[in-house]
Design a protein that fits this description.
Number of strands: 7
Helix content: 25-40%
Low-confidence stretches: none
Strand order of the largest sheet: 2-5-6-7
Radius of gyration: 17 Å
Order of helices and strands: HEEEEHEEEH
């Protein structure tokens, strides 16, 4: 992408986030690029603690919890089950707050501050993860930008679980 096109794309997102007009994005269908271990027979996502509507500048995100659940369903595939299902490995998202980050002086992008817990099928804490997800492509415009940042968040949460599980194996 040439510098002029990059600047125009970033400016377009900056205008959505902070210009005078309000834009609303509804449910998205993120596709996290992660693999779930064969030992996980069932996986659920609990996002009830996350605000369902969030506002960043003049951008309103609605049905955000469903977007997070869709990402979990796409990550787990046929192993996905509803939150609260007995015997499921669970991802409990305690916090997922959208914000805006800066790309120097040329524009802004969505970021996502998160905190979550992975629970074993018997309800024991397997790992806690927290961080800030930024999109792989911060200059992406339109609602795909939201899907991108949610995908990165899931990838970071799975990586955090993997690191915790690996360190527990070496400690034993």
């Amino acid at each position: 992408m040439g510098p002029n096109r990059l600047a125009r794309a970033t400016l377009a997102l900056a205008l959505v986030l902070f210009a005078g007009c309000t834009t609303t994005w509804g449910v998205r269908n993120p596709q996290p690029n992660v693999a779930i271990g064969a030992g996980v027979a069932k996986l659920s996502v609990d996002a009830k603690n996350v605000p369902d509507e969030q506002e960043v500048g003049n951008l309103i995100i609605t049905d955000f919890r469903q977007t997070l659940i869709n990402a979990g369903r796409n990550m787990a595939g046929s192993r996905f089950v509803p939150a609260g299902t007995a015997g499921a490995f669970s991802l409990v998202i305690d916090q997922a707050v959208l914000d805006a980050g800066n790309i120097g002086s040329i524009g802004q992008y969505l970021s996502l501050r998160f905190r979550a817990r992975w629970l074993t099928p018997d309800g024991q804490l397997a790992a806690e993860v927290a961080g800030v997800a930024e999109p792989r492509n911060p200059t992406e415009t339109g609602s795909r930008h939201l899907s991108d940042v949610v995908e990165v968040m899931y990838e970071q949460m799975v990586a955090g679980l993997s690191r915790t599980m690996s360190s527990q194996k070496t400690d034993n």
